[in-house]
Amino acid sequence: MSISRAVHKAFLAIEQSEGAGARVRRSIGTPKLRNFSPFLMLDHFTISPGAGFPDHPHRGQETITYLLKGAVDHEDFAGNKGTIETGDLQFMTAGKGIMHAEMPRQNKDGSANVGMQLWVDLPEKLKACEPRYRDLRAKEIPTIHVDDDKVTVKIISGQSHGTDSVKELAYTPVWIFDISIKPGGQISQELPQGWNAFAYTLSGSTNFGAEKDQTTVGQYHNVVFEQKGDKVDMSVDADATEDGRVFLVAGVPLDQKVVQYGPFVLNSQDQVYQAMVDFQSHSNGFERAKGWQSEIGKSMIH
């Protein structure tokens, strides 16, 4: 007998400024939801032409970037560079240290680049691993249709209705789905027991929970589920005027302390101080930061 997860809470992600001219709706990593292990931060970002995230360091976490519209270039001090476009993802493991830039493409119509960026904590034993990137292209993502084609599921990571994602892309086990529900549609998505899970509402109004215990949530909200249960039930009312679109994520909680200072996420205050010293002195993973400047970041220097 499977149990539907109840909604623990749902709250609106307020828009704020971040980086150089970018706008983000941050939900995880705010007073409303701190360190929802293994998740450290969730940003729904809008980067207009001329804005971006120029050269900056990271240590101790992974970032997962899902582009909803436009294109974003990246470049780092190890010589890695590339571009993700609409529907693509990039999984970046900072490990012991990386310095990189993430800059939007200038779209011909002047439109903004929009996407989701999720920060995932690394298990303590992997904090000092070598940095790496893994891209997942839109065409590689399995897409299934359920409930007479009223529901479309993009299986970015994990399993849905017997279909598996392409590959493991992060060190910390995480399941990610992009789910669109037409009016009158419904879906039960299984999730591993004991994992923490949330849903971010990209558009429309979606009902979460079992029939008698439903919560209806509008756009730009983070819906946090109770840990008890092995599935999430979602539906959209038959008389709704638009589809519900949900970014559903679950991950294995890590039993460890989180000490974060900006882009450094470690397990003690001393380790954070050490990360700052290492970055300033170009040592212990930050050797290549000395004198490095990204080409794509130079567009921000006026």
TrEMBL record:
Keywords: Iron, Metal-binding
Residues binding Fe cation: H56, H58, H100, E102
Note describing how the cofactor binds: Binds 1 Fe cation per subunit.
Requisite cofactors: Fe cation
Alphabetical list of CDD domains matching this protein: cupin_pirin_C, cupin_pirin_N
Residue stretches making up the Pirin N-terminal domain: 22-120
Highest taxon listed in the record's lineage: Eukaryota
InterPro entries: Pirin (IPR012093), Pirin_C_dom (IPR008778), Pirin_N_dom (IPR003829), RmlC-like_jellyroll (IPR014710), RmlC_Cupin_sf (IPR011051)
One MF term in the entry's GO annotations: metal ion binding
Stretches assigned to the Pirin C-terminal domain: 177-284
Pfam families found in the cross-reference section: Pirin, Pirin_C
Family note: Belongs to the pirin family.
Protein name: RNA pol II transcription cofactor
Source organism of the structure: Ramalina farinacea
Lineage: Eukaryota, Fungi, Dikarya, Ascomycota, Pezizomycotina
